[in-house]
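Lab notes, practical 5.
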Amino acid sequence: MKHVKLPSIRPSIFPSSQNQRPLVPPNQPFPPPNDYISSPTAVSLSAALQHYINSVFPSPGQKIHAHILKIGFKPNTNVSIKLLILHLKSCCLRYARQIFDEMPQPTLSAHNYMISGYLKNGKIEELLNLVSRLTFSYEKPDGFTFSMILKATGCASGGNFALPYCLEKVVHAQILRSNVEPDDVLYTALVDSYVKNGRVGYARRVFDMMLEKNVICSTSLISGYMSQGRVEDAEYIFRRTFEKDVVVFNAMIEGYSKSVETARRSLEVYIDMQRLNFRPTLSTFASVIGACSVLAAYEIGQQVESQLVKLDFINDIKMGSALIDMYSKCGRIEDGQRVFDHMPEKNVFSWTSMIDGHGKNGNPMEALELFNRMTIEHHVKPNYVTFLSAMSACGHAGLVAKGWTLFESMERDYMLKPRMEHYACMVDLLGRAGSLQQAWDFVMGMPEKPGSDVWAALLSSCQLHGDVEIASIAANEIFKLKSDSRPGAYVALSNALAAAGKWDSVSEVRQLMKVRGVSKDTGCSWVGADGGPCGFLTRKRCNQIREGR
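Output from the prediction step:
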């Protein structure tokens, strides 16, 4: 062992035991090299920057950049790239871009780091502008560049700019034209991009080209198929996925849970994954509780709640809200209230679920009392759905004045501009109370063109109170907007005319339905059975919803 003489340290520099603090932050076992101050060279600066890049506290390393600017040191490419990485890790995109723009000829690595930084911070427009700049430079995109662009196409929805048409197909074509060798990361990004943009067929083609299918691609493809209702295709991919994980099970469970025809299979997969020793996650339970809601299977929901207690998930705020919603939809509002009362923490979604549950289970006064408690006592800001649930409760209770107060307070007190569904709810509220003229004036005074839901609410109210004139106007407006997707509008108009004794007009409406190929969905009643929900039609035998039949 080589012996080194240690410098002597005066005892006075050690802190007392009462206020002792670590000299070096956690996960930072040694102090940064200070050679860059006394002798700033590319090597010493690079070493100091690398220290902070590797640290969990990179921000203090920005003082090195300040020192470089102070002494007028001109960094080389290596130092510039490390400064760029340091600023990105410190969440300072502006400084990172400044370093990038000051580079005489940015390398592909510099482009990729900057593109990755924009993606991480959701700056998709800036990312695509930088990619465009890259295509006109001497550098050529590599697999990492393409994967970042593909990921950007999946998270750019809802932005203030329009993506180039079929950007994922353009990127795919560039990959094929270039000398880039596709790997699992690139294939996965390509499949996921196609799925998120609704082009599942293209995603399947890429998936079939892969020599080794990974579980991430399988999960993405399963989610895409399920979102389009292609359950059999999703099941095929699931069976062909040999190395399954909990995420791919979750994709199947979530997909099955959306429809009453397949919700029972969601519970079967949930049981199978536990038999294979996969531990359910919060996402698993959220989908299973959703399946219980669709099936109105509160007994199974109670068992799921017991498992949440055993796994110590019961105090999760999302699970509490999901349970409240499930019990409310199953008509077990007392159980929903019990879950709500025992939640250690509540957010706007918890309150909204409970308000909506009381409103839909015939307890409008309890719903409005909860709304007041939420806003006045607990100072929780309501969202759009909260207002919709509270206004709907006013409609069931016939509280027109309270409904008006809620509607006006949205924009006045909470800066929430009413949406079309709120206008429709107000029309329904006024119509239920018999104020058809006031409802008509409200529709005519809307700041935007009324949607089909608004006219449908007005039509329903006219049918209830026998106003054929306004009913005809409302129905015609619906036919203009959605002539073939609202069969209920034809039926409501026909019933209103029949109640008024205008049988010639009734015949005309029914003839119009035949000409346009509009047919009313057959009503179906549901009862609980040992094998699951049982749906039956008048004069027809029971048709049990089991195994997708």
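Observations recorded by the TA: Confidence is low (pLDDT under 50) at residues 1-30, 544-549. The two ends are 78 Å apart (CA to CA).
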